[in-house]
Amino acid sequence: MSGVLHVLLHMVERDGPVTSETMATIMGSNPAAMRRTMAGLREAGLVRSEKGHGGGWTIERALSEITLRDIYASLDSPELFAMGKRTDAPGCLVEEAVNATLGSAFEEARTLLLDRFAAVTLAELSADFHGRMLARGNKDDQEIYHEV
Q: I need a labelling partner for 32 at 20 to 30 A (CA). Which of 47, 64, 95, 136 fits?
């Protein structure tokens, strides 16, 4: 999620389409992985791709219309928490009690986090980036956001 948001904010700073190769360089990834990730965003209507010379990826909707929840969903809603419930001892009442408590806590946390994701837009993230850049005294310094 963090990497996708990173790429999208770099795209916002570009005047035209961004190639998978450029995104991969920015993220220290590879172009094929970037295309797979971007394909999910395209299917969700968040980005579009143009083939050929001068082609690449662009953001399809207004930044104020794209929430973190939209992006999360476009990534097939990955697990939010690395911690899980133990399933080593089926039928163990202690394990059942622990799993029930953890399960409800994880679900509450998941709901809270997804609600927060729904309340944050790419426009807000972009504004935060620009505020941080200005606070450092950089008006249009490409170095600050490590574009190539």
A: 64
